[in-house]
Amino acid sequence: MTGSPKSKVQSPKSKVQGEAKPRYLAPNTQHPAPNTQPSPAHLLSEAAAELTACNVLNPRLDAEVLLIHTLGTQRAGLYTRLHDPLPREHAEVFRHLVHRRAQREPLQYITGVREFWSLEFKVDPRVLIPRPETEVVVEVALRLLLQSAIRNPHSAFRIPHSAFRNPHSALPMRRVLDVGTGSGCIAVALAKELPQAEIWAIDVSQDALAVASENARHHEVAERVQFCQGDMFAPVAEYHEGFDLIVSNPPYIAHDDLAVLQPEVRNWEPHCALDGGVDGLDFCRRLLSEGPTYLRSGGWLVMEIGQGQSTEVMRLVRERRDLTESFCVPDYAGHTRVAVAGKV
Ligand code: GLN
Predict the structure, then answer these.
(1) Residue of the CA atom closest to atom 10 of ligand 1
(2) Of 109, 115, 210, 342, whose CA is between 20 and 30 Å from 62?
(3) Among 342, 340, 316, residue whose Cα is nearest residue 328
(4) What CA–CA distance (Å, rounded) separates 242 from 294?
(5) pTM here?
(6) Tens digit of pLDDT for each residue in 231-264?
(7) Residue 205: C-alpha distances to residues 46, 183, 210 (Å)
(8) How many CB atoms sit inside 10 A of residue 323's CB?
(9) Mean pLDDT of the chain
(10) How far apart are CA 277 and CA 250, in angstroms?
(11) In angstroms, rounded to a whole number, what is the distance separating the alpha carbons of residues 254 and 232?
(12) What distance lies between CA 123 and its chain's CA centroid?
């Protein structure tokens, strides 16, 4: 036992006798000797230091998420055994994941999951990682369809009354189209919220559709979500006026801005899901020019837009004679994030 951690732990007896400082109560911040089993506390501080050195934004939080992922535990479970030695295999797996994160691989690609609309989505580099602000697309779509605050009654925005002047806008919802579905997060969230709806989800990437289908199966909505591969509206070319709602989170980053995005996005996420052309609005323009053909009268186009794009997007909407009732909705950070237009 000589040299093992236990041999260094003082007995309670010696503490009572005051022969030495009670070292066994000291925080476990020292490096354990080689071949010993490190504690979660030790692994977390080691990982946080490595991630900090690589400029990861939330080093301690990311380290905790990776350790929880490694151990298959909950956060509370981790904290109840913060100083207990861990099996060496777990420490090795954890350190490997931390090295991946230190290369600025997104946390969600490492854990393989991302929460969106309180649902867990499988993600990997074939798809864009769903962002919290995209939940506003879902929220707006639901409000337009159900005309009531069904998820977040305290949310800052209200759909303007004028948006419902069109007598057709109250028709029961039948068909929704998600253009550029990626992980399927919007399509699956809407399918869960609207059990009577039929959802169509298009993506140009077959790889992305494989992930989206898996997410639809996982959330048991696969029979109501029709996945199609193709460019924008090509797979539904015959469905003129076939949809009550078109939703989209199109690529909207201006091409030259891709180079200055944080490494997690720039080096790992699919560029075809991000690159919106010279001014970022290539896909937005196509949604506005091609989308109305596929909307029934009184239907809605709801799309996510980038910061600083709302004025130009609203101008583009006003240019169209087949679109009306347009407005923008801010995200939870107060940035104009979602543009809405109604089909005349
Ligand atoms: N619809 C998916 C999302 O919102 C993918 C979007 C995209 O690939 N641009 O995350």
Answers:
(1) 130
(2) 210
(3) 340
(4) 6
(5) 0.84
(6) 999 999 999 999 999 999 999 999 999 999 999 9
(7) 39, 11, 9
(8) 22
(9) 87
(10) 11
(11) 19
(12) 9
b/e per residue 255-273 (b: at least 16 CB within 10 A): beebeeeeebbbebbbeeb
**d(CA 128, ligand 1 centre) in Å:** 6
- Strands 198-203, 175-179: pairing is parallel
Pocket test for ligand 1, best of 128, 205, 211, 252 (most atoms within 8 A of CB): 128
pLDDT band at 34 (very low <50, low <70, confident <90, very high): low
Taking only the tens place, the pLDDT of each residue in 175-213 is 999 999 999 999 999 999 998 899 999 999 999 999 999
Q: Which residues contact 98 (CB under 8 A, 6 or more apart)?
A: 47, 50, 51, 63, 66
Closest to 289 (Cα-Cα) out of 312, 315, 322: 322
N-to-C CA span, the chain: 82
Residue 5 structure tokens: 């951690």
Q: What residue owns the CA closest to ligand 1's atom 4?
A: 249
Mean pLDDT of 266-271: 98
Comparing CA positions, the residue from 195, 201, 296 lying closest to residue 243 is: 296
Band of residue 163 on the pLDDT scale cut at 50, 70, 90: low
Of 113, 121, 122, 99, nearest to 53 by C-alpha is 99
Question: Which of 36, 33, 35, 14 lies closest to 23, judged by CA?
Answer: 14
- Show the tokens assigned to 11: 């007995």
